[in-house]
Structure formats: C-alpha cells, structure tokens
UniProtKB/TrEMBL annotation:
SUPFAM superfamilies: Zn-dependent exopeptidases. CDD domains: M14_ASPA. Residues 15-179 form the Succinylglutamate desuccinylase/Aspartoacylase catalytic domain. Its cofactor is Zn(2+). This is Succinylglutamate desuccinylase/Aspartoacylase catalytic domain-containing protein. It comes from the Eukaryota. Keywords: Hydrolase, Metal-binding, Zinc. It comes from Staurois parvus. Pfam families: AstE_AspA_cat.
Length: 202
C-alpha cells in the first residue's frame, strides 16, 4: 500500500509522515500484533522519502488485555480531553491522549502527521472495512480505492461516518488524513467517482 512519498493530482502535498496505530483498544489484538511485529521488522514498512512509524497507543490496556483502563481512548481527542490540566487526577487515557497528540499532532495543525491508520477488530461480520471521516478528503478516497483494488478479489468496504454537527474525538483524528475501523451500524450506500462507500444513518 505504501509507495515512495505519495501525492495526488488534486493539489494535496506529498505524504511524508504516516503512523500505524495498534492497541487503541487493548483487547483488539490484530493491530497490537502487527505493530509489535513492525517495531521488530521495520524494513517491511519502510519507504523511501517517507517516515512510517508503528505505535502502540494504549500500552496499559494492552498489558491487561482490556478495552481501556479508565475511559475509552478513542473518544477523548477533543478540546476538552486534550486541554485538561493536572489540577485533578486525570484518567490514564486522557493523559495518554495528550502524549499521543504531542507526538503525532498537534491536532488540526500543519505539523500533524499526514496519515494515521488506526487498526481495530470488531465482532461484527463486516470483513475488512476502511473508515472515512470526510467525503471531501479526495486523497483518502483515492487511497481507499487503491487499497480496494490491491485487496481484490477480497472485498473491502468503506464506511463514511461524516456528520456536519460531529467533531470526531478518535485517536486517528489527529492526522490530516485519518483512517480507521468501526463496528457495524445502520447504513446506506453512496456512489463516488473513485469508490463506493457506506454512509452511517443518524
């Protein structure tokens, strides 16, 4: 999936920094296994002109093999969580979110990582699924189309979770182009010039 420094014709600048997250939920083990593997075998994901960084996001939850320790790490990357000060005892995952934001962000800034792939498992029978948070993110949609073609004949769905009134507080939302995995929800299908995607029904 990762070539040399990536760019698209729509005016997006070259993609230079990519992070691969595993263990956002400590009991979802595929991402944990892959990230630990790539930490030992970095050459498998190394690409010329690009930083590709595997990272365990919630190590305490991974060690205990639980979804989270104090609160869901995948829900606290908002202004409230990232701005919480040490005046009171802060939940472990909020402290961890602030650490992750300082490494891979700051969220919403030009210095944030270009792409974060956040790897999850689900008990829903949905197979391989890519999560899209912005239907105007042409780069990510084209990347998803490339992934779908590369995986064929194995099916790979794309799930759009865009909503005009929702600001996402997911781990991956730090990046300019966030990519993730989500549980199965009520949906419909929408056509796009690059790939079809599933849209959540709110």
């Amino acid at each position: 999936m990762l070539g040399s420094a990536m760019s698209v014709s729509s005016g997006v600048s070259s993609i230079r920094r990519v992070a691969i997250f595993g263990g956002t939920h400590g009991n979802e083990l595929t991402g944990v296994f892959l990230v630990k593997h790539w930490l030992k075998h970095a050459g498998e994901i190394a690409r010329s002109g690009m930083e590709v960084r595997p990272f365990i996001t919630n190590p305490n939850a991974v060690e205990k093999c639980v979804r989270y320790v104090d609160t869901d790490l995948n829900r606290v990357f908002d202004n409230q969580g990232l701005g919480l000060q040490n005046k009171v005892k802060i939940p472990y995952e909020i402290t961890r979110a602030q650490e992750i934001n300082s490494i891979f962000g700051p969220k919403g800034s030009k210095d944030a990582y270009d792409v974060i792939l956040d790897l999850h498992n689900t008990t829903s029978k949905m197979g391989a699924t890519l999560i899209l948070e912005d239907s105007n993110d042409d780069f990510t949609i084209q990347m998803f189309h490339y992934i779908q073609k590369s995986m064929a004949p194995v099916h790979c769905s794309v799930l759009l979770i865009e909503h005009p009134k929702v600001k996402y507080a997911t781990t991956r939302s730090i990046a300019k182009h966030p990519v993730g995995k989500l549980d199965k929800l009520q949906h419909t299908v929408r056509k796009h010039r690059y790939c079809d995607y599933v849209v959540l029904v709110y």
